Amino acid sequence: MLPAEFSRTIIEDLYAEALVLADEAREVFDLRTREPDQPAPEEMRIALSIEGLKTTTRIMHVLAWLLNQRAYLSGELSQQQLRQAGPLPADRSSDQHQLAQLPPSTRALIRDTERLHARASRLDADRIKPGESIVGRIHGQLEQAFAAG
After folding, report:
1. Domains of the chain as residue ranges with CATH
2. What are phi and psi of 96, to 5 degrees?
């Protein structure tokens, strides 16, 4: 497991990034704020709805996971409670056909949220499980590396 302060810094940085992305996603995907005199084509509205739902769900999953990590690091959750909260849910990737209907800035926002989820997912996968030692983990990684090569 990473030292607590190092973990805290990473989690806090990801949390700040997730909040910014959540706010940007709200602005981009809130169809109520669109100009009524410039209606979007039907395919674009459908793509906005589909990819908007995936994007906001992705961000909310990351935010919930990060809030649990923050609570654990600050002592508000025990290790048992953190385990019960479960891992970060898997991401549902974007549909390339739907993405093609969206403006480049919206596609960039979606890619940013996918990268954020991937980083959080790597952190979640890299956490030391209860009862596992750092030395044991490194030993296992070395065994896998030499077995594969």
Report:
1. 4-148 (1.10.8.930)
2. -60, -35
